[in-house]
């Protein structure tokens, strides 16, 4: 549905050139939700703007629904854009128009008859659950409501593709969940292909089928969410996965933590589980084999795209040699074990 | 004050009001599209065009730098050609409109610059043509600010029209000049001042009321 072929974008400034995208290729199949994750400045904003040619790529081709957009003249491009929806981090609603008129806006652009507009707007506002707000101005709405209006607006022309530019980054976690649920629902119901960019792995985990990791204008890794979560190949991907887990050492342990081994202290070990990790009940196995006690300090395990992953903090007590063996055992089962110190 | 003086003042006030609002109207007729053009042809805007932007910008700057009293005299041949005379209210309308237009153009350009760029981007993403962006996004979104610019312009025009009075434009300016400056009639001079101040306050009040009405940003 969406295909980028070897797309590059270079911004020329007075005395320098900044490469935002370099030879990036990407394919999103019909009905799929594809997430692109990257740090700020990695080129993800430019990437999504190249899909509807808000930014003209310096080279490469952009094909949406079989149309090579990069070859269209400006008039045809304007027409094609009406089939590509887009929502933004800062909603971009017109402050001078009510909720109703904002949703009617794209229909006015294509000179839809008034009665038809009224029907369609009512339908869309019902879909996003804002019928009672139709006469309000955007300034009187909460962030989540604004994004719902923006979603209703962008669906007005029945787009085949929906581009989401950090659509939930300005929202609180609860609202983010409800907006993501709405997007997923829209994707299911209307078979709309969604390409979203984000810097949060949680967004990818929540709704994406496939994910690409962008860094310095290149997709360094892409695949199904379960593939990426279970076999992250690059350090950056690992970092993004870890960032979706909140890991920190409890204060009480931090105060007691010493970097040196001590007779009276036990090692504090961080275990990282990825999709590769053994499915065996490793904690009880290690305990049985080496006579160590695994005291779980904190743990966060999650499940995404069929892969289990997570981080666990253990205090392992037992003889020094056996503790060492237990840690080796974990590592041999594709669980990254690391001694953080001794408590 | 004699009765004839009072009726002269009322007539003068009327002429000033006509000069201010009519030239304000024509000023906007020229200045608004020019301001929109200045904005649209700026770098990174929908009709980016360096040459046109420079050219219009230079013309605007030239007209803005001519002192108004000189502009009236300088434009006399053109004014005669257009309205057949170079004195009176009708003749004053020509330089007043031309003098206000570049001022309005810059004000409009500035108002449009205040519109968040994201809105233009969203409109483009929805398939809006440049004309639709102007009529459905830029002008409605900038309206509160444009209304404020309009009241500032009209107030400046009150001053300009009074200045024009010194060279035969009519209105309160002429009365103030003839009876106040030449004849040194303190009562008439001060009455003229009070009427001008009242007019300015009235325009400011109307402008603010409308701007508040059309502003839905908060």
Oligomeric form of this entry? heterodimer
How many β-strand stretches of chain B?
A: 0
Distance between the termini of chain B: 50 Å
* Whole-number mean pLDDT of chain A: 90
The number of helical runs of chain A is 12
Describe this structure in words.
The complex is a heterodimer of chains A (343) and B (218). Chain A is elongated, with a radius of gyration of 25 Å. By secondary structure, chain A is of the alpha/beta class. Chain A has helices spanning 44-51, 74-81, 99-109, 114-127, 143-155, 173-190, 201-207, 225-230, 235-243, 251-256, 282-290, 320-332; strands spanning 2-12, 17-28, 33-37, 59-64, 67-68, 84-87, 161-165, 193-198, 210-215, 218-224, 267-273, 293-304, 307-317, 335-342. In chain A, the strands form three sheets. Chain A has a six-stranded mixed β-sheet with strand order 6-7-8-3-9-10, with helices on both faces. The N and C termini of chain B lie far apart (50 Å). Chain B has helices at residues 3-40, 50-65, 68-74, 76-83, 89-113, 117-125, 130-165, 171-182, 186-214. Chain B has nine helices and no strands. The A-B interface holds A 52, 54, 78-82, 84, 86, 88, 90, 92, 94-97, 105-106, 108-110, 137-139, 153-154, 157, 163 and B 116, 118-119, 121-129, 132, 136-137, 140-141, 143, 214, 216-218.
Summed up, what is this model?
The complex is a heterodimer of chains A (343) and B (218). In chain A, 36% of the residues lie in helices and 30% in strands.
Layout of helices and strands, plus pairs?
The complex is a heterodimer of chains A (343) and B (218).
Chain A lengths: L1 E11 L4 E12 L4 E5 L6 H8 L7 E6 L2 E2 L5 H8 L2 E4 L11 H11 L4 H14 L15 H13 L5 E5 L7 H18 L2 E6 L2 H7 L2 E6 L2 E7 H6 L4 H9 L7 H6 L10 E7 L8 H9 L2 E12 L2 E11 L2 H13 L2 E8 L1
Parallel strand pairs in A: 3-8, 3-9, 6-7, 7-8
Antiparallel strand pairs in A: 1-2, 1-4, 4-5, 9-10, 11-13, 11-14, 12-13
Chain B lengths: L2 H38 L9 H16 L2 H7 L1 H8 L5 H25 L3 H9 L4 H36 L5 H12 L3 H29 L4
């Amino acid at each position: 549905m969406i295909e980028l072929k070897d797309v590059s974008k270079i911004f020329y400034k007075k005395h320098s050139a900044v490469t935002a995208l370099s030879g990036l290729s990407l394919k999103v199949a019909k009905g799929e939700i594809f997430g692109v994750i990257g740090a700020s400045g990695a080129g993800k904003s430019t990437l999504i703007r190249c899909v509807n040619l808000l930014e003209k790529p310096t080279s490469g081709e952009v094909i949406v629904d079989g149309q090579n957009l990069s070859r269209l003249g400006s008039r045809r491009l304007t027409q094609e854009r009406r089939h590509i929806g887009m929502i933004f981090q800062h909603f971009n609603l017109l402050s001078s128009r009510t909720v109703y008129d904002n949703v009617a806006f794209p229909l006015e652009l294509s000179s839809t008859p008034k009665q038809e507009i009224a029907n369609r707007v009512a339908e869309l506002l019902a879909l996003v659950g804002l019928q009672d707000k139709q006469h309000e101005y955007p300034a009187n709405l909460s962030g989540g409501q604004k994004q719902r209006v923006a979603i209703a607006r962008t669906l007005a022309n029945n787009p085949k593709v929906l581009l989401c530019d950090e659509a939930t980054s300005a929202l609180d976690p609860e609202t983010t969940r409800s907006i993501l649920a709405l997007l997923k629902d829209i994707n299911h119901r209307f078979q709309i292909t969604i390409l979203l960019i984000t810097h949060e792995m949680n967004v990818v985990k929540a709704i994406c089928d496939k994910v690409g990791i962008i860094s310095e204008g290149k997709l360094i890794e892409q695949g199904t969410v379960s593939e990426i979560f279970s076999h992250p190949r690059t350090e950056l991907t690992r970092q993004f996965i870890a960032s979706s887990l909140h890991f920190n050492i409890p204060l009480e342990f931090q105060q007691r933590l010493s970097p040196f081994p001590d007779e009276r202290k036990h090692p504090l070990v961080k275990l990282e589980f990825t999709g590769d990790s053994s499915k065996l009940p490793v904690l009880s196995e290690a305990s049985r084999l080496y006579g160590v006690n695994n005291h779980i300090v904190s743990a966060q395990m999650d499940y995404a795209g069929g892969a289990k992953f997570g981080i666990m903090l253990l205090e392992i007590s037992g003889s020094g040699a056996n503790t060492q063996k237990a840690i080796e055992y974990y590592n041999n089962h594709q669980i990254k074990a690391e001694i953080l110190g001794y408590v | 004050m004699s009765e004839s003086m009072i009726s002269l003042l009322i007539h003068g006030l009327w002429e000033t009001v006509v000069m201010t609002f009519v030239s304000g109207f024509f000023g906007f007729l020229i200045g608004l599209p020019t301001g929109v053009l200045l904005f649209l042809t700026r770098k990174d805007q929908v009709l980016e065009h360096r040459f046109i932007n420079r050219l219009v910008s230079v013309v605007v700057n030239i007209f803005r730098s001519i002192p108004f009293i000189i502009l009236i005299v300088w434009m006399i041949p053109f004014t005669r050609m257009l309205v057949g005379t170079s004195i009176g209210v009708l003749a004053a309308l020509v330089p007043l409109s031309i003098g206000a237009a570049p001022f309005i153009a810059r004000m409009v350009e500035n108002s449009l610059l205040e519109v968040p760029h994201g809105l233009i981007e969203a409109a483009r993403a929805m398939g809006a043509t440049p004309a639709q962006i102007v009529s459905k996004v830029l002008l409605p979104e900038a309206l509160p600010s444009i209304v404020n610019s309009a009241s500032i312009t009209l107030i400046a025009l009150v001053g300009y029209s009074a200045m024009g009075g010194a060279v035969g434009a009519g209105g309160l300016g002429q009365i103030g000049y003839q009876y106040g400056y030449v004849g040194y009639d303190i009562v008439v001079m001060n009455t003229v001042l009070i009427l001008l101040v009242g007019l300015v306050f009235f325009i400011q009040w109307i402008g603010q009321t409308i701007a508040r009405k059309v502003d839905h940003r908060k």
